[in-house]
Design a protein that fits this description.
seven-stranded mixed beta sheet; Rossmann fold; two-stranded antiparallel ribbon; alpha/beta
Length: about 550
Amino acid sequence: MKTTKEKSILIIAPSLIAESISLKLTSLDNDLNISLDRNDPKVNPDLIIWNILNYESEDLIRLELIKIKEKWSESKILIIFSSEFIKEEDTPLPNLNCEGIILNPQVEKVLESINIILEGGRVFDLNAKYPAKIKTKKELTFNQKILTSGLKQIDSEINNIFSYLNYDKTPKLYKFILKGRLRELITAKSLLIFLWGNTIEMNSNNVFSDSPKSDLKNKDNTIFIKNKNSLDIWEIIYSRLIKKYSSIKIKIDLKNPDLILTGLKKEYINKLLTNILSELNKLINNVKDNSFENFEEEEFISLISELKKNTLINIEDSYFRVKKDNDLISLSKFLSDNIQTIEDDSESHKAELFFKPIINNEPLSFEGRILPLYETESFKLIEEIISNWAIRICNNLASEIFNLCSEYPELRANLINNKLLSTRNFERFRNNINNYNRWHNNIRMPINFYESKREYIDIMDNKLIRYYRNENREKDLRNLEWFQRQVTLIIEIRDALAPQLEIIVRYIGDFVVTILTKIVGKSIGLIGKGILQGLGRANSK
């Protein structure tokens, strides 16, 4: 007795590709009821699989998506991009209003995505970092040409029969004969696909990945949200970031540093990053378990301050000892006793921005928009915000470590990069960092505020990189110090005067050109003509 519910699916794709997708999916799951005719009025699918082979315009995709939703308003949508979508590495997939977006997946991933979406979840690939290389199109063999031609003819004949069957004035006897003919054509088509099923694989090469290894690489970029609860979403973000920070091997350039964090030993960089995420996870779970979500702002600031302190203290276990003045002392206790108040970086968001939506299971309020955490855009955004916040806090903690190490060589030998052990290299590194910070804080940062930009730090390709997002910085702009405001004033004056100076320079240039061509040029021409005439007279004499 069948206990599982049949899943109704509509595939929107070119005919042969749709047939291939249907064959592959039904071979793995017999409970799939797949339809390939989007014009059939009886079709009311639970899920629509839309395969996009040619990516030309995101706006066109959005318009088509609106049409699909208007026709099947209750249906969920899974979009599959082929590998031809990829033009360059790290190409972001478009943010579309649908339940799933995946790129060049294996058929097993498609089936898993179908089940998760039908159960109320979301599936999406974050980017196209591991694209499948596009193979050059091979010329069809003789058998493939016959199969393609035969299937196209059958499809054409089936469409003609449907047009007659749907025509009200067609005689009933003729409809009866046509239905018999339709059954014959469908049987013939099924037989061709059954006999030459391997040949039809050529039509799905651009849809499904053939390599399990490549799909495993892409697995980390595929998000399966089974439950829309914010805590479950946080667990996904936490597991992704902790895996990323614990396994990363950061490439460090000590000659041109811009982050003091890079001056630590590599293992301690990883420890700081994983510690702060672990402490944040403990705090979130503790607040949720004890049901005191609505605490005062001062209490929240105190909790975040304690989180920072614990992150630094737990950089080594409590049994780890370092030598100081011929005594062995606990590193954790020393850090705990000497740590100063660690302020937030001005380029990082306040922790309340992501903490409260996670705790209260509510959408993210960002830039005047309400973004549910399970949507693609908001998921990527909150992950970037948390990652940027964590890295910047760790950078401030590293600065605190460097301050403690300045007069403590034994501590320096344990925590600081071996290349910075000498006093000269140590102080040179600190001076380079201080110079960068002065330039950034006094010049670059006010300009970012004025241009409504926020600087993010992330780890990509084993490197700490900086990038920018456009965000409202009016509040930060009002809180600038006097010197920083003068920088923005200079930029404003430049923007105001530059167009006027451009016009003046252009007019002066036109005037000079006129003088040189019309007056000076003619004068020189007349003088030259007179000289030539004088030479002519002299020669004639």
